[in-house]
Design brief:
By secondary structure, the chain is mainly α. It has 20 helices and no strands. Helix 5 runs antiparallel to helix 6 and helix 10 packs parallel to helix 12. It starts with 11 loop residues before the first helix and ends in a 5-residue tail after the last helix.
Length: 387
């Protein structure tokens, strides 16, 4: 596996570029606007492609030194400070962007999110997010944050009125996109002491996303309020199980936030997700690992194992065949191929692959046992009257 590369926000190319542009501006060039746009474009690339907020901040400050009226620079400077978790500076930059109007709605959304999630200014968050939703009623993220703000200020009916149109008649065919709506509606109905409705929404949320911790906690509280203590305690046990799983996974996710191109971390995340049967997330993690490191036999093996566990044997067979093309003397690959063929009830192929595994490792009793069991099945097929 390649070593994890530490981020260097001031690489040589970036320094040369900034210095050369500044030199042009200081020389009295008439291309001031194009120079600032060039700096802003560079900052966007640093921020959005690699989350290199330190260098983005430097570039944007250079742009504003040249032209302090560039509202776009204030907006991306605010986003950079958000990535740096410097909330006061982010607030100041986003306010500057809002005053200049061009990026008013995106800046209001970002500032409202900061006020709600980081600065405990919920009333101000409501004012900003309401305006965003008024101008862009299809802005789902703003809608969700606004509902959260209403619930925190005990305006539960406002949250219900805001979210209900999004999930009408969806109980039987809701998707992952609807998950936050169901959780928030469950919490809002709970706040209104409408516990049966709250439980319905929360059960649907768990059905959509069974590995999210919060839903179990709120559903358990519903059961206790409904005088169903047994179900409440059972749901609390599931909540604790999910919480412990998240504690194991959280450090890996934080590592990937900082080093998203680390294949070993993606592999570890996939193995943890597979352990708790979160198949979709595990598959995505293994595929990312393989995309980042095409030589990762561990990633291919884990993905094949996942396909076996989810009964997708044909995909597992394809992966093991690919692995054998590069390592034809790996007895485990031959044995695992044999197992996949057994599960597909193709016993002739299974015998062939178990036999190859046993030839490579004749002292392996597991391989010998697999081969003898398939021989017994084939023998019964040849002699159907044998008891």
């Amino acid at each position: 596996m390649p070593d994890i590369q530490k981020k260097n926000p001031f690489n040589l190319i970036g320094i040369v570029t900034v210095c050369s542009v500044v030199a042009l501006c200081n020389s009295g060039s008439t291309n001031q606007s194009s120079n600032t746009q060039f700096l802003i474009q560079q900052a966007q690339e640093k921020l959005l492609q690699s989350n290199n907020y330190k260098e983005a901040i430097t570039l944007l400050q250079q742009a504003l030194t040249i032209d302090a009226s560039m509202d776009e620079a204030y907006y991306y400077l605010g986003l950079s400070y958000v990535s740096a978790q410097q909330w006061k500076k982010a607030e100041e930059s986003l306010r500057q962007s809002i005053r200049r109007l061009k990026h008013e709605i995106p800046a209001k959304y970002q500032l409202g999110k900061i006020y709600l999630e980081e600065m405990a200014k919920t009333d101000e968050a409501i004012r900003l997010l309401s305006d965003v939703f008024l101008h862009k009623p299809d802005h789902g993220e703003a809608q969700i944050l606004l509902a959260e703000a209403y619930i925190r200020t005990h305006c539960n009916q406002k949250a219900i009125d805001l979210l209900q149109p999004m999930v009408s008649d969806l109980f039987d065919h809701a998707t992952q996109d609807h998950f936050p709506y169901y959780v928030l509606l469950g919490r809002a109905h709970f706040g209104q002491k409408q516990y049966t409705s709250a439980a319905d929404y929360l059960r649907s949320a768990i059905q959509i996303h069974p590995f999210q911790t919060e839903s179990y906690f709120h559903l358990a509280n519903c059961y206790f309020q409904m005088n169903k203590p047994t179900r409440g305690h059972e749901t609390l046990q599931l909540f604790e199980q999910r919480r412990q799983e998240e504690q194991k996974i959280a450090p890996i996710k934080r590592q990937l936030d900082n080093f998203p191109n680390n294949p070993a971390a993606w592999l570890e995340l996939g193995l943890l997700e597979m352990d708790r049967h979160n198949w979709a997330s595990a598959e995505q993690a293994f595929e990312t690992c393989i995309r980042l490191d095409e030589t990762s036999t561990e990633g291919f093996e884990a993905l094949a194992q996942l396909h076996v566990k989810t009964d997708d044997y044909s995909k597992a067979i394809q992966i093991y065949q690919q692995l054998l093309e590069h390592d034809g003397k790996n007895a485990n690959y031959w044995n695992n191929l044999g197992y996949a063929y057994v599960m597909m009830e193709n016993f002739e192929q299974a015998r062939h692959h178990f036999q190859r595994a046993f030839q490579l490792e004749p002292d392996n009793h597991s391989f010998e046992l697999n081969l003898s069991r398939v021989d017994a099945i084939l023998s019964q097929d040849d002699n159907p009257n044998t008891e």
